Amino acid sequence: MLVIGLLAGLAGGVLSAQIFIKPGPEGEQGPQGLQGETGPQGIPGANGTDSILQMIQNRNDTQVEISGYTEMQWYNISEFDPSMKITINVQQNSKIFAQFSSTHQLEQPESIWIRIVVDNNYNSSRYMCSTVLPASGTYKMTGHIEFLTNSLTAGTHTINVQFLIESGSPDILDRTITVIEIAS
Fold first, then answer.
1. Cis bond leading into 31, ω under 30°?
2. Where are the domains of the chain?
3. Which class does domain 46-182 fall in?
C-alpha cells in the first residue's frame, strides 16, 4: 500500500511539474539552407509561348518585430531575413513573375505597406494592412501581391520585398516569396 502511494505521488508530481514549467526564450534563427539545383526546363505553353523556365520559392515562418525602423521609409525585408531576396539568372527577353504572401500582426493603430522590387528599378503595386480607431486588440491579417515584369535583358536580376511602416510597429509573421522565369 505504501509503495502504491509513493508511486502515485511521484507520478502526480511529474505530471503537475509539466504544467508549471515555462518555456525558455526562443533561440536565434539558424542559417538559410542551400538553394536546390535548377530543375529541368518546363513544357511549352499554348503555341510554344509563356513556358516556365525556372521557379524559386523561399518561405520563413519566424516572427519579426520591426519597431526599430523609421516610419514612412521603404526597407528591404532582406535586411532581417535574407531568404526574402532572390537573385535569378534569366534568358534574353524572359519575364519575371514574382509573388509574395505574408501574415502581419497589428495592434491599433498600426499600418504596414508591402511591395515587390526588381533590380531596385521596377516596383509592383502595393498592399496595405492597417488597423484604425475605434478598433482595439491584436489583429492578424494576410496580404498577397504579384508582379509581372516586361521582357528583361539576359543575365542576373534581383527581386526584393520591401516594407514601409506608416504607423506603429507591426510584426511580420510567416512569409513566402516565389519567383518564376517565363519565356516570352
1. no
2. 46-182
3. mainly beta
